[in-house]
Amino acid sequence: MQNNLKIAFIGGGNMATALIGGLAGKLTAGANIHVVDPNAAALQKLAQQFGVSTAQTADAVLAQADVIVLAVKPQQMKEVVAQLLPHIGKQLVLSIAAGIRAADLSRWLGGHGGIVRSMPNTPALIGKGITGAVALPGVSAAQREAADAILRAVGQTVWLDDEALIDPVTAVSGSGPAYVFYFIEAMQQAAQEMGLSIEQGTQLAIATFIGASQLAADSTEPVSVLRERVTSKGGTTYAALTSMEASGVKQAIVKALHAASARGRELGEESGRD
Ligand SMILES: NC(=O)C1=CN([C@@H]2O[C@H](COP(=O)(O)OP(=O)(O)OC[C@H]3O[C@@H](n4cnc5c(N)ncnc54)[C@H](O)[C@@H]3O)[C@@H](O)[C@H]2O)C=CC1
Ligand SMILES: O=C(O)[C@@H]1CCC=N1
Q1: What number of CA atoms fall less than 13 Å from residue 265's CA on the CB side?
Q2: Which of 20, 188, 191, 204 has the fewest CB atoms within 10 Å, i.e. the most exposed one?
């Protein structure tokens, strides 16, 4: 359902594009979306694709926004937020940056209380994203509803009570699409090595991910039971999973997610040091 939320994006890169692609013409008209980014080529592409208005530096349009989405790299956030200060009033500030703590954002924004910190993922582009979000106590019920409406327009939302859990969410679902693509790449490589064409390997791998994920989503049984059902004793899956276990694949994946979460925490600590 369409509403008339005025949404400004600070940063028009990969993740902003995924969100705008899911929102424009669905939750709100493209004309209600404003994007600030110094990269003129990126702005031109967004304007052509989604009908958004654009600016290369923070401008007066920001003062009219209901929601300002912070979508720049964590390392740039403090400097970028300083440029926004003259335009900040009652808007809800919705950060999607990995690591950056809401308390630091609030301090950089002169004590602004209307902040939601979130972690979306790129399938937002096709309306199949999932976002973890946490609201500062200063966020009104209407603002939280606006944030939820934006995030739900591009997929599912999981609201958290504890901001510390955003780093684990980042490790699981924020970065998660990259792990899935990595796994698909490995399946493509193996398929090719065994004589299938790149097209066939790609089709087989992607359809398998979609089918297995949907099966897991629809099932009331644990994922481990679904896995066991594919694994005939002494059969092909058994051979593959035995090989993965021997190579420590699961352990390596678990370790990798811990590394992602720790990096999130570290990004927050690095940026929050004043
Ligand atoms: N890419 C992803 O899958 C996800 C990214 N995020 C978060 O989203 C944020 C952006 O990440 P990406 O879109 O991947 O990065 P990106 O590098 O694609 O986009 C960042 C954009 O910020 C722009 N920018 C630089 N200085 C600026 C300024 N002063 N004012 C306005 N814009 C400026 C850049 O020109 C660029 O277009 C990061 O904080 C990241 O942690 C969150 C979830 C998933
Ligand atoms: O890699 C990153 O830092 C960002 C956050 C989650 C996905 N991409």
Answers
A1: 9
A2: 204
Ligand 2 binding pocket (C-beta < 6 A) is: 98, 170, 174-175
| 4-29 per-position pLDDT tens digit | 899 999 999 999 999 999 999 889 99
Query: What are the beta bridge partners of residue 119?
Result: 132
The pTM for the full model equals 0.95
Q: Where are the domains of the chain?
A: 7-166, 176-265
In this structure, CATH architecture of domain 176-265: Orthogonal Bundle (1.10)
CATH of domain 7-166: 3.40.50.720
Distance 15 CA to ligand 2 centre (A): 9
Number of other CB atoms surrounding residue 82 within 10 Å: 12
Atom of ligand 1 nearest to the CA of 120: 43
The answer, yes or no, to whether ipTM is higher than 0.85 is: yes
